[in-house]
Amino acid sequence: DVRQLYGSSEIGVSQHTGTDIKVDSVGVLYPNTIVRIMDDSQILARGPSRVKGYYKNDKATEEAFAGGWYHTGDAGYFDDDGHLYYLDRLEYMSRLSDGTTFAPQYIESRLKFSPYIKDAFVVGDDTRSYIGAVININYDNVGHWAERKRIAYTTFADLSQKPEVCQLIASEVQNLNIKLPERQRIQRFISMPKELDPDEAELTRTMKLRRGLVEDRYKEFIAALYGEQEKLAMEVPVFYRDGRQGVVTAEIRVNRVD
């Protein structure tokens, strides 16, 4: 019986109670606790469990508890059932051209809950009007799925671009989208024709995304997510352990999510 709660040393905010559990959320508010979600998605909280302030530091107290609200520095949102969702620290949030804020790491981690998705990076900034994603399929799981469906394929690149596989991944994206606020949903994605690889410095040895590097290396993918073409031929760089560099040539599908 695993339950989540949300709070800090300054204030307790929410937790799962009874049988009212949603695994993605941090529960419902404690009694007599009030939360306000600001335009930038910051969580502000007030309630009986808050501390009086910081010891001998009036300035820090005034800043953190301005207006009687504790400014958490965290981003989040409520669903229609009153469950609170923690997204990320404000400093890691991104913003679309209409001012919508979203948490790339939150969306990426939720995508990887799917057994068919191994890795992903989510993109969007103040020059873009919607969120896109570049997704790595889980080769083993998607391969077994394709075999059960009697879908023939030859390589990772071939499998990743099969229409049936793209539809499979689209359904996984849709499953996530229904749990997200409308403007924070993925509208287009590309299935990469190669795996992100720590040997190519795209991931750390603990398998964390090197965001700046992959966004630069795959900037053509990102541009395609915001273009008009549904298919385009691309040469994807491959870096070998012995220092050699090659390319994978593939026709890439740009997939729209309904």
From TrEMBL:
SUPFAM superfamilies, alphabetized: Acetyl-CoA synthetase-like (SSF56801)
rRNA processing recorded as keyword: no
Keyword ATP-binding attributed: yes
GO MF terms, alphabetically ordered: ATP binding; long-chain fatty acid-CoA ligase activity
GO CC, any one term: membrane
Keywords in alphabetical order: ATP-binding, Nucleotide-binding
Protein name per the record: Uncharacterized protein
Species, as recorded: marine sediment metagenome
